């Protein structure tokens, strides 16, 4: 192979490599990457005409701690518990200082049951249905906002999609 052939081959190889590197980077930029949700992220949930900011409890440490040891909870805040499996869920109020209401929620975002819980109560509150999600808020919040079982959380499946409960 003469010098001219080697130079042409090198230029062609360089051009081909450059094309694929640029093309690949372009494709990489155009792909939508999904953000993986983490415990204690904040989500905004809309139930009817009401909006609520919630912290996510999606792993064992965040679910175990929950809202324990907090002296108060702002009115339009709560905690959304996410579990890895659909099953009957149990909650208790050990070391929880504020009265809470809890809603058990279907995978589609429908509120199935609402219960009230007392501070520091060691008896458990259990979901009637098998669920993956539960939402804790200040006691009476659901009633004050006209939210009853059967209400649906807007775009719920989309909002929780990026969370892998563990």
Describe this structure in words.
There is one protein chain. The longest helix is centred in the N-terminal third of the chain and has 28 residues, at 3-30. The chain is α+β, with helices and mostly antiparallel strands. The protein is built from four helices and eight strands. The protein is globular and about 35 Å long. The protein has two domains: 1-33; 42-160, Jelly Rolls (Sandwich), CATH 2.60.120. Strand 2 (50-57), helix 2 (60-65) and strand 3 (77-87) form a beta-alpha-beta unit. It has helices spanning 3-30, 60-65, 141-144, 156-160, and strands at 42-47, 50-57, 77-87, 90-91, 100-105, 111-117, 125-126, 131-138. The model is unreliable at 16-33 (pLDDT under 50). The strands form two sheets. A six-stranded mixed sheet has the order 1-2-3-8-5-6. Strands 4-7 form a two-stranded antiparallel sheet.
Number of helices: 4
Radius of gyration: 25 Å
Strand content: 25-35%
Shape: globular
In the CATH hierarchy, the architecture of the largest domain is: Sandwich
Give average pLDDT, whole number.
86
Which short descriptors sum up this protein?
166 residues; alpha+beta; Jelly Rolls; 2 domains; two-stranded antiparallel sheet; 4 helices; 8 strands; 26% helix
